[in-house]
Amino acid sequence: MQAVANQIDSRVARKEEFEEQLNKAEEVATIYLKRQGIEVLEKDWRSGSGQADLIYKEDNELVFADVRASTTGELPEETNEEIRAGRKAAEKLVIDYLSTHNYESCRIRFDIIAVGLLGKSKAFLRHHRDAYSAGD
Questions:
Q1: 75 alpha-carbon distance from chain centroid
Q2: Residues 104, 116: Cα–Cα separation, whole Å
Q3: Long-range pairs, 99-108, Cβ under 8 A, ≥24
Q4: What is the reported pTM?
Q5: Ordered structural domains, the chain, with CATH
Q6: 61-81 pLDDT tens trace
Q7: How far is CA 36 from CA 12, 61, 72, 79, 103, in A?
């Protein structure tokens, strides 16, 4: 019984650590965007279709960004299959968002912001603009 309790405690601790890393990565991404002169409209916007980590407007584009975090010293990468699945999920999320928000005419873009966390005070990132473009 104690072993099961230890496994549960370990899973809870890993989940909390993951959420803390993702929150830190979102904070880094938000700071990066602000330095680019971009205002973030929404953080962690949720619907029945999923969640957008960040939503912002850049020029005439409404951007839905997926923030990825890593503490390994390398940036997170995705396979083509993961990109296709992400695009489908993001498209459903956009439909939900646009049904509750009024945007006249703007282009929709899907970005991935990969953040490498190096300790508590250092990070680096790669901004993949238009990451889910239909290239296949």
A1: 13
A2: 36
A3: 103/62, 105/60, 106/57, 106/60, 106/61, 106/62, 107/60, 107/61, 107/62, 108/61, 108/62, 108/63, 108/64
A4: 0.80
A5: 2-128 (3.40.1350.10)
A6: 999 999 988 887 766 666 566
A7: 36, 15, 26, 28, 22
